[in-house]
């Protein structure tokens, strides 16, 4: 099979990450185009990673042969570019989140169904070994009945971050603040573990930044179809910046992932009653996470090397997409999966505005 030809729509910071991954996959993929309205940025990226520079995606589609368009622009522009690519007969990869509202994500989904092409939304942390371990444990019932989950993003972004791009922290192009931009990955992992969300309630505030339309702190609660409950916390106002944390709890076990590393894992054998096994508030010496250290040669447990971690995570998702193009696998993170995270976040924003819980469709 010939190499798959990729075009990047956008030449910003995240596009450079995609360029690194395409370099790693150069036996299967090649970067043939980079499109950005600031042509000098596109030219700089092509000098690093190859391909031709174009001032727009339309020019790239007209000027060279492309199989896959990777949308790496501000979130509020994702839909138009993805639909343009799909209508041109291209497969599409979209940086997270797919769009700034559920309705706009659904427009992309409708275009995908008309075009009959593959679409994946970047949620690279679903491919982290730690996430795969926890989600598989949930699937196998190792934690028993799920009771609660927590998604917490305790990060810091200085004022210079928001001032560095006129789209950052805006409703029109960012679609939200700390929860939509920084927190969407961890919210998505909460959905992957806990299942379909049905209701959300929350508060938002801007407490540590100026000239920002959207929140730098969001807190909320979510109810899942199973009856389990979840807690949400997303902030870019936690100095000096701590961790992104996912917690999954059930009546037979629990897991904690911090900064993509499995820091706690415990499941109770089916022939042991949990109340007979132990009781306490700290878990004692019950942590079983070490049994997963180095699984499949991929670092999992806290303390493992994080070198190349971000590239690896994107790489695993690209490998899945390329396998799907060959008909060997299904796309693991499509628009329907990402839609649920968007629904939670936009529902929380609506709840913060109205002061009432929001039912999720």
UniProtKB/TrEMBL annotation:
<dbReference type="InterPro" id="IPR000683">
    <property type="entry name" value="Gfo/Idh/MocA-like_OxRdtase_N"/>
</dbReference>
<dbReference type="Pfam" id="PF01408">
    <property type="entry name" value="GFO_IDH_MocA"/>
</dbReference>
<dbReference type="InterPro" id="IPR055170">
    <property type="entry name" value="GFO_IDH_MocA-like_dom"/>
</dbReference>
<feature type="domain" description="GFO/IDH/MocA-like oxidoreductase">
    <location>
        <begin position="135"/>
        <end position="255"/>
    </location>
</feature>
<dbReference type="Pfam" id="PF22725">
    <property type="entry name" value="GFO_IDH_MocA_C3"/>
</dbReference>
<dbReference type="GO" id="GO:0000166">
    <property type="term" value="F:nucleotide binding"/>
</dbReference>
<keyword id="KW-0520">NAD</keyword>
<dbReference type="InterPro" id="IPR036291">
    <property type="entry name" value="NAD(P)-bd_dom_sf"/>
</dbReference>
<dbReference type="InterPro" id="IPR052515">
    <property type="entry name" value="Gfo/Idh/MocA_Oxidoreductase"/>
</dbReference>
<feature type="domain" description="Gfo/Idh/MocA-like oxidoreductase N-terminal">
    <location>
        <begin position="4"/>
        <end position="121"/>
    </location>
</feature>
<protein>
    <submittedName>
        <fullName>Putative dehydrogenase</fullName>
    </submittedName>
</protein>
């Amino acid at each position: 099979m010939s190499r798959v030809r990729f075009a990047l729509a956008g030449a910003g910071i995240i596009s450079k990450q995609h360029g690194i991954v395409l370099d790693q996959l150069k036996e299967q993929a090649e970067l043939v185009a980079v499109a950005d309205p600031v042509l000098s940025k596109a030219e700089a990226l092509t000098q690093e990673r190859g391909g031709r520079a174009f001032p727009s995606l339309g020019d790239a589609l007209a000027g060279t042969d492309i199989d896959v368009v990777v949308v790496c622009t501000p979130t509020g522009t994702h839909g138009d570019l993805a639909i343009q690519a799909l209508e041109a007969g291209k497969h599409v990869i979209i940086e997270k989140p797919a769009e700034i509202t559920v309705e706009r994500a659904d427009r992309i989904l409708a275009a995908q169904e008309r075009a009959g092409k593959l679409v994946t939304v970047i949620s690279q942390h679903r491919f982290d070994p730690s996430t795969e371990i926890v989600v598989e444990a949930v699937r196998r019932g190792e934690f028993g009945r799920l009771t609660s989950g927590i998604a917490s993003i305790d990060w810091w972004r200085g004022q210079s971050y928001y001032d560095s791009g006129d789209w950052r922290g805006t409703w029109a192009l960012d679609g939200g603040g700390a929860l939509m931009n920084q927190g969407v990955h961890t919210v998505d992992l909460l959905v992957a573990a806990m299942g379909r969300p049905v209701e959300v309630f929350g508060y938002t505030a801007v407490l540590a930044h100026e000239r920002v339309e959207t929140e730098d702190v969001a807190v909320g609660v979510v109810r899942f179809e199973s009856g389990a409950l979840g807690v949400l916390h997303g902030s870019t106002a936690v100095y000096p910046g701590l961790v992104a944390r996912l917690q999954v709890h059930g009546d037979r076990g629990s897991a904690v992932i911090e900064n993509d590393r499995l820091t706690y894992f415990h499941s109770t054998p089916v022939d042991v009653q949990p109340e007979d096994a132990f009781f306490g508030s700290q878990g004692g010496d019950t942590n079983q996470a070490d049994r997963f250290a180095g699984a499949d040669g991929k670092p999992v447990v806290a303390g493992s090397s994080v070198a190349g971690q971000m590239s690896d995570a994107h790489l695993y998702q690209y490998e899945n997409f390329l396998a799907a193009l060959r008909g060997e696998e299904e796309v693991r993170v499509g628009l329907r999966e990402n839609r649920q995270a968007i629904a939670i976040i936009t529902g929380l924003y609506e709840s913060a505005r109205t002061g009432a819980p929001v039912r999720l469709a």
